[in-house]
Amino acid sequence: MELTPQHHLNLGGSYRARSGAPFNYLARHPVYGNDEVFLLPRGSGERMPWQHTVDAHLGYTFVQTPKQSFAFTVDAFNLFNFRAVTRRTERYTVRDAEPITGAAAKNPFVNGNKKQIDPALVQPSDGDPRPFDDTDVERGYGAPRLYQDPLSIRFGLKATF
């Protein structure tokens, strides 16, 4: 936007919304290690929350001659500092286990709670005769691991001659 022939203003903004990623229940594989077995089909858990981001841009240009100018810009990313959780710990257990399949995979949760799989459905494959129980579930399962990037501001200067 031209304020005067020598003074120009540039305004801009954007809004982005992304649906949250699917959540999984992971166990240990005897050969490949942790987080290599999907206890339930991929994406069986609740989804992460939606992520919203508003960015803004402000620029001012002073034009001395058609070939000489000076510009100052400010960009703000995640202007409202939204802090949605973008990733949670998906390691359900560190015990070797077989995937839950068939009819059991259709409703494997205790009282419909998508955070707790019925321990009787988890078949350990680590050779330990002890059946799978609540003590085998990782304490940190479902804990936030990553959040949206916080508000950040970028300043810019540009001279042409």
How would you characterize the overall build of this protein?
The chain is mainly beta. It has one domain. It contains no helices and twelve strands. It is rod-shaped. The model has no long low-confidence stretch (mean pLDDT 92).
Assign a percent range to the helix content. under 10%
Shape by Cα distribution: rod-shaped
Helices and strands, in N-to-C order?
EEEEEEEEEEEE
Radius of gyration: 26 Å
Q: What is the count of distinct domains? A: 1
Give the class from helix and strand content and strand pairing.
mainly beta
Descriptive tags:
161 residues; mainly beta; four-stranded antiparallel β-sheet; four-stranded mixed β-sheet; 12 strands
Write the layout of secondary structure elements.
Elements: E1 7-18, E2 26-29, E3 33-38, E4 51-65, E5 68-77, E6 85-88, E7 91-98, E8 109-110, E9 113-117, E10 123-124, E11 144-147, E12 152-160
Parallel strand pairs: 2-7
Antiparallel strand pairs: 1-4, 2-3, 4-5, 5-12, 6-11, 7-10, 8-9
What's this model, at a glance?
The chain has strands at residues 7-18, 26-29, 33-38, 51-65, 68-77, 85-88, 91-98, 109-110, 113-117, 123-124, 144-147, 152-160. The chain is mainly β and 161 residues long.
